[in-house]
Write the C-alpha cells for this entry.
Amino acid sequence: MKEKIEKILLKDVEIKKRVKELGEEISKDYKNTLPHLICILKGASIFHSDLIRNITIPLTIDYLSVSSYNGGTQYTGRVHLVKDLDNPIKGRDVIIVEDIIDTGHTIDYLFKLFDLRKPKSIKLCSLLSKPSRREIDVKIDYLGFEIPDAFVVGYGLDYDERYRNFPNIGILSLEED
Ligand code: IMP
Ligand code: MG
C-alpha cells in the first residue's frame, strides 16, 4: 500500500487564524473562571498547545490518551484508555480539546468517563468534525472546521503515527502498489 497527500484541505495560515478566534471566544466565555483544558493525545497535541496560547485568561491543563484506531483508517469499535489524567476534575470547568469528531464513539466514551468524576461543567472544543460519519449525536461547543468524509492528516493528525508534523491538513489517499 502506498499513500500520499492528495489534496491540501486547510492551510497552516487558515488553521492559525481559526485557532486564534477559538481562543478569543473561550477567553470571553470563561472570564472570571479557571478553565481546565484537557488535551486528548496524541492527535490534539498541536491544536491544544496553539489554542492555550491564544487564551488570554488563567487556565490549567492536563493530558489523557486514548486509542481507537490501532493504526489504520477505520474505527475498530473499541476505545482504550492508554493514559489517564494526572489531576482530579471534580468541581472544575472542563474543556475537552479533541482533534476530530468522526463517528463520535471516542468523545462519547470520554464524556461518560469524565461525568462520573463530577466536574462543574464540561464543554467540547474540536478542531475538526466529519458530520456525515456520525453514529452518535455529539454537541461540539467550539468547532474549528467541518470537513467532508475523507481521511485527513497533519497538524497532529496521523496515519500510522506519521504525518503529525505536517503543518497543513491534507487528505490522504491510499493506493495499491
Ligand atoms: P471517532 O471515535 O470515530 O469520533 O474518532 C475519533 C478519533 O479517530 C480521533 O480522535 C482521531 O484520533 C481518529 N480519526 C478520525 N478520523 C480521522 C482522520 O481523518 N484522520 C486521522 N485520525 C482520525
Ligand atoms: Mg484522537
About this structure: The chain has a mean pLDDT of 94. The pocket of magnesium ion (ligand 2) is lined by residues 40, 43, 99 (CB under 6 Å). The helical segments are 12-29, 45-52, 105-115.
